[in-house]
């Protein structure tokens, strides 16, 4: 996937989240086999539950990419103080029941798509709704950030 495979609006809206915090999230979809386009943009006041609703709107038969500006608190092990953090995270919703062609496309384009999104700190491929819970996602990324 090169820059031609990612519609300009994808990068423009992503940069509006990254630089100016204009939106809370974006849902992306593959159109015409190899072009990534914006499907949904979440306003800043939307929460994680609304993001999940939009990400999984097509049920367990279609894959999607979603970028979420995750705000969370982390307790410092040394000072025991609570620290507020923000991370741009990319989730690849690729359920087990999705169409095989769709799974192959989304998983094969994931790395190249991530390269277009400068500043994404973490990514995760998610196959079951249980893995999409905020606690599960936050725990996954918090564990990764303490190892870095």
Automatic annotation (TrEMBL):
GO molecular function, one term: actin binding
InterPro entries registered for this protein in UniProt: ADF-H, ADF-H/Gelsolin-like_dom_sf, ADF/Cofilin
GO BP, sorted A to Z: actin filament depolymerization
Keywords assigned: Actin-binding
Domain ADF-H: 1-142
Top-level taxon of origin: Eukaryota
CDD domains: ADF_cofilin_like
One GO cellular component term noted in the UniProt record for this chain: actin cytoskeleton
Keyword hit for Cytoplasm: no
PROSITE patterns per the UniProt record, alphabetical: ADF_H
UniProt keyword Transmembrane helix, yes or no: no
Protein family according to the UniProt entry: Belongs to the actin-binding proteins ADF family.
Official protein name in the record: Cofilin/actin-depolymerizing factor homolog
Originating species: Drosophila hydei
Gene it is expressed from: LOC111604540
